[in-house]
Amino acid sequence: MPAETSIYAQALQAIGETAQAYEVRDDTVARYRARMRESGPLGYAEGGMSALIVQTATEHRRDCRRPDCRTCGNLREVLAVALAGARELVDHEIASMVDSNRRRPRLLPKWRRGGVR
Fold first, then answer.
1. Number of Cβ atoms within 10 Å of the Cβ of 57
2. From what superkingdom does this record's organism come (predicted)?
3. Chain-wide mean pLDDT for the chain?
4. Which pTM value belongs to this model?
């Protein structure tokens, strides 16, 4: 577990430093945390991040004229991660629905169970 804690600490530090450079306010972070508590942190974070990534990438693509842009390269990688996450989520939901349908008992109509003749 110490390795995971170290990864989380490093990620939190890197995100915090970058957020500070972009002047992210604590009240904005608190508002998003409250929303995450209401709807579950992973789904909200995934959906919210993906939407913002797409918006940022779309705006940057429209404004960028450089043939070899590091931001475009970074956005390409982030979009790949977001797309992979969305696909995994959809696959998981489909597998859950199929699995729950398999476990559900198949009820025969009353006339086939012998209750109505």
1. 19
2. Bacteria
3. 79
4. 0.58
